[in-house]
Amino acid sequence: MSLQDANQALVRPLISRLTLRDFRSYVALDIRPSARLVALTGENGAGKTNILEAISMFSPGRGLRRAEIGQCARRAGPGGFAVSIEADIRGDGVQLGHGYEPAGQDAATRRFRIDRAPVSSARAFADYVNVLWQTPAMDGLFSGPAGERRRFLDRLTLGADADHGARVARLERALRNRNRLLEDQGDSRWLSAAEQEIASLGVAVASARLDTTERLSALIEAGRNDASPFPHAVIRLEGDLERMLVEEPAFTVEERYRATLAESRRRDAAAGRTLIGPQTSDLVVFHGPKGVAAQDCSTGEQKALLTGLVLAHARLVAAMSGRSPLLLLDEAAAHFDSRRREALYEELENFGGQVWMTGADPELFASLSDRADIFTVAPGTVERR
């Protein structure tokens, strides 16, 4: 199958209706877009990002702000919220719903529904939509701490493997458990059991991250264009387990890691944390055309590099799942010059999936007036322009 045929065969979900109740700044909201490009414009604080966050709740995890679920409820509201999207998928409609009810006599409850039938978690939404995003909080990714890049890589991995987030969460809990056992000088049998769990989960997490990095690198290399305003990235994952996984089968690496954990108890107890494992790995990124580490690039170059990486990941998710993801771009075009901004819009149109964008200045989207649904956002309200 040619690349053109593969692109034509993609399922391209389109949100045809988004409704909110008591979510963030909205008492109620009902938006009905019809275009592949959707632009939300309005003053800072008007509620544009709240709309993107509502859509991001249909992915595994905590959404694009990583907020505690109760924080998403409207402050002056009853304490809960409801979000619903109606998606058109090859002519067939599906309704996805996500709600939260505050604690009363029973514990606080999250509810998930597909066509009004309850499902157990947001993981079930991944059978219908994939949701990816870029936010201003990611602008310092390349110069920030390694933990932020690991979180970014986990989000990339989650885009193609909806179970990855649960594995990462289980690994974090297992590591905390081992740290407590070391601090309390716990029974060696309990430590051995904890280390066996960490070894199994650690290798699974490292393998998934490594697979995503390698697939993304191959896709970027295949489509590289040194003249593009969005420079291609050269990426690699650095870590002890990842180096071993390149050379040895997973079951061998798991046993070696378990043995290393047992040998490192005294050192890890002194440090107060586990010093070896995927929780210490780092995603290293270079500006491909220049061959310069991303952290040493200018702010504008880093922004363009990040956007190019997000777009490449969206193409990877589409290729792996057979379904174009919903892409949320919060203020992504605000700091680009007109040439790079128009190049971004061209990339998004070629991408073919539905894209929701925000920007405070309406002029950012002036050239899209005949190609996009443009909405003006004011506190609590949204109107089509």
From TrEMBL:
Task: Name its GO BP terms in alphabetical order.
Answer: DNA replication; DNA synthesis involved in DNA repair; double-strand break repair; SOS response
Q: Classify the main location.
A: cytoplasm
Q: Which Gene3D superfamilies match?
A: P-loop containing nucleotide triphosphate hydrolases, RecF/RecN/SMC, N-terminal domain
What Gene Ontology terms describe where this protein resides (cellular component)? Answer: cytoplasm
Encoded by which gene?
recF
Q: What does this protein do?
A: The RecF protein is involved in DNA metabolism; it is required for DNA replication and normal SOS inducibility. RecF binds preferentially to single-stranded, linear DNA. It also seems to bind ATP.
Sorted alphabetically, the keyword list is: ATP-binding, Cytoplasm, DNA damage, DNA repair, DNA replication, DNA-binding, Nucleotide-binding, SOS response
User: Where is it localised?
Assistant: Cytoplasm
Q: Which family does it belong to?
A: Belongs to the RecF family.
Q: Which organism is it from?
A: Methylocystis heyeri
Provide the residue positions that the database annotates as binding ATP. G42, E43, N44, G45, A46, G47, K48, T49
Q: Which residues does the UniProt record annotate as the domain Rad50/SbcC-type AAA? A: 17-57
Q: Where would one find the signal peptide in this protein?
A: none
Asked if the keyword Acyltransferase belongs to this entry, the reply reads no
Q: Which GO terms describe its molecular function?
A: ATP binding; ATP hydrolysis activity; single-stranded DNA binding
**What is the protein's name according to its record?**
DNA replication and repair protein RecF
Is DNA-binding among this UniProt entry's keywords? yes
